[in-house]
Design a protein that fits this description.
Layout: H1 3-40, H2 60-65, H3 71-80, E1 85-87, E2 102-104, E3 109-110, H4 118-140, E4 144-151, E5 174-182, E6 187-189, H5 190-193, H6 199-211, E7 217-219, E8 231-234, E9 243-244
Parallel strand pairs: 3-4, 7-9
Antiparallel strand pairs: 1-2, 4-5, 5-6, 5-8, 7-8
Helix pairs in contact: 4-6
Transmembrane segments: 21-38
Keywords: Membrane, Transmembrane, Transmembrane helix
Pfam families: Extensin-like_C
């Protein structure tokens, strides 16, 4: 090999090495930026411990889904998130057995706050603090004082049928929400305001959309006539992801 060819070969080799080095630097910079973003957005960080005070991200619903069959871990999440709750003993039998029900304390539900599965309780906390209250303050300039519900536990099959699949209400793994009351006493109901074209309808849709980020199933008046007066939220395990309608 002539000296000229040797120099050209050396330059080509150095150029290839420089390209590899630059590529590694770019990859390192991207990895560092990604990790920095995940650190600042724990809701989208699949490795960050779930804290219900964090803004929901694409990993939040998956983390809550993992709590459905692990009440002990779920209650540990509530404690870590400084959410007040009461752990109740299991009750009922067969398809209507409530396994380790949990009752949130100080939650603005009316009438009273019913016990639910812990995964429903965890989602309710995020939904209120990260979805409902910010939407109310944005639209009305005030918060929500009370959320009206139609119940959580009901030992029945879907739609009250005599046969067929059991409702998630049969195990208190669901709750139905019917209306919201603002701090000034104004009431926004699904039956009365869903079909309007004003701030009340906009608020109700924001509340529905926020629920879709943390519940496995969200059914609204857009789903069917049976839900014209309430939102149905549940944490049914679904292999193909959640339902939001």
């Amino acid at each position: 090999m002539t000296e000229r060819r040797w120099k050209i070969s050396r330059r080509i080799g150095k150029l290839r090495w420089d390209r590899r080095f630059i590529s590694l630097l770019i990859l390192a910079a991207v990895a560092l930026a990604t990790w920095s973003w995940l650190r600042d957005n724990p809701g989208s960080n699949p490795w960050a411990p779930l804290d219900l005070r964090d803004e929901p991200g694409w990993a939040t619903e998956r983390k809550i889904r993992a709590l459905r069959d692990d009440p002990a871990q779920c209650r540990a999440v509530l404690e870590r998130s400084e959410v007040a709750f009461t752990a109740l003993p299991s009750a009922g039998e067969g398809p209507c057995r409530r396994q380790n029900p949990t009752r949130l304390q100080g939650y603005p539900l009316s009438p009273d706050t019913p016990p639910t599965s812990c995964a429903v309780a965890a989602a309710m906390e995020i939904w209120l603090e990260q979805g409902v209250q910010p939407a109310a303050r944005e639209i009305y300039g005030q918060g929500i004082a009370r959320i009206e519900h139609l119940g959580a536990y009901s030992c029945r099959r879907l739609y009250g049928a005599d046969t067929g699949p059991w409702s998630e209400h049969a195990t208190a793994n669901a709750i139905d929400i019917s209306a919201f009351v603002l701090e000034d006493g104004s009431r926004i109901s699904l039956l009365g305001n869903w079909n309007d074209e004003d701030d009340d309808a906009r608020f109700l849709r924001k509340a529905r959309d926020a629920a879709c980020e943390v519940f496995g199933t969200v059914l609204s008046p857009d789903y069917n006539a049976a839900h014209r007066d309430h939102f149905h939220f549940d944490q049914q395990a679904r292999g193909f992801g959640g339902v939001c309608r």
